[in-house]
Write a structure and sequence with these properties.
This protein is an all-alpha fold. It has five helices and no strands. The N and C termini lie far apart (70 Å). It is 71% helix and 0% strand.
Amino acid sequence: MASSSARARSLYRLLLRELPQRPLSVPSLVQQRIRNTIATQPHDNSQLELDQAEQYVHYAKAQRMYTTLLERYNPGMEMDEEERVRLTARRVGMDLPDEFVRKHKS
């Protein structure tokens, strides 16, 4: 029973680490819901519930890593077309002509 409640607390902390950071004085609705669920349930958390929580922690970690890798290896994903063309030209050692830049800015 003690190890079950310790595992539940550990999973709770892991879940909070994977959520976006917020000040402790203003927890998000998800943080409040997780805390209320863990606090209101008796400490005899079933093995199935703990396993599901652990799977969710692994999923949240994988999603965070996926987003990080996507941003790292696709830096032009958030750029507009003009900026992408300018950087592509710079990558191969060229600069865009002045008239191209003036035409698109006006």
